[in-house]
């Protein structure tokens, strides 16, 4: 999903990646899905985003193969929720890196406005996007939690491609 132009055929890997991930709304939508929040209305409420913006970002993420739609029944009309694909799960180190960089270099507007990357295997906060700095294990969606203090007092296990709520399938 291009920001200003189509960068998908550029000779630079970073430019091609930014063609999909370079929009802040796209990253925030992925954050919500990793938190297990893949239903349109829930994302819209959490992100405080217009329907048209969210619809466009979700369509782009599905088209790019990072998300897929899965039907669910809420007792009313048929609905879909968005879940990660394996390709989408592979974006985790990017989101972790942005989070860790932000925590290190940008002031938080309040004590609750922090988000930490936690390796569930050892229970420690990490300062690396892809490897736990406490025990050295590779970070994956299946063994990583995010602790967003504005959401909850405890870390939240991340959703995976096989399990949208972050539990083992």
Beta-strand content: 15-25%
Radius of gyration: 16 Å
What distance separates the N and C termini?
A: 31 Å
How much helix is in the residues?
A: 25-40%
State mean pLDDT (0 to 100 scale): 91
Number of helices: 6
How are helices and strands ordered from N to C?
HHHHEEHHEEEE
List keywords for this structure.
6 strands, globular, alpha+beta, 6 helices, four-stranded antiparallel beta sheet, 169 residues
Descriptive overview:
35% of the residues lie in helices and 15% in strands. It starts with 12 loop residues before the first helix and ends in a 12-residue tail after the last strand. The model has no long low-confidence stretch (mean pLDDT 91). The protein has helices at residues 13-21, 24-34, 40-47, 51-63, 86-89, 92-105; strands at residues 67-72, 79-84, 115-119, 124-125, 144-148, 156-157. The chain is α+β, with helices and mostly antiparallel strands. Strands 4-3-5-6 form a four-stranded antiparallel sheet, covered by helices on one side. A two-stranded antiparallel sheet has the order 1-2.
């Amino acid at each position: 999903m291009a920001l200003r132009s189509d960068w998908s055929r550029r000779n630079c890997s970073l430019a091609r990646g930014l063609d999909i991930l370079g929009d802040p709304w796209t990253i925030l939508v992925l954050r919500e899905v990793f938190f297990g929040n893949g239903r349109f209305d829930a994302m819209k409420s959490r992100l405080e985003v217009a329907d048209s913006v969210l619809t466009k970002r979700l369509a782009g993420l599905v088209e790019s193969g990072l998300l897929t739609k899965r039907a669910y029944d809420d007792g009313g009309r048929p609905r879909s929720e968005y879940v990660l694909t394996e390709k989408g799960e592979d974006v985790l180190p990017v989101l972790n890196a942005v989070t860790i960089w932000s925590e290190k270099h940008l002031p938080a507007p309040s004590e609750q406005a922090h988000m930490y990357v936690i390796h569930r295997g050892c229970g420690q906060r990490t300062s690396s996007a892809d490897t736990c700095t406490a025990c050295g294990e590779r970070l994956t969606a299946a063994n990583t939690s995010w602790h967003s203090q504005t959401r909850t007092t405890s870390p939240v296990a991340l959703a995976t491609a096989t399990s949208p709520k972050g539990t083992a399938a």
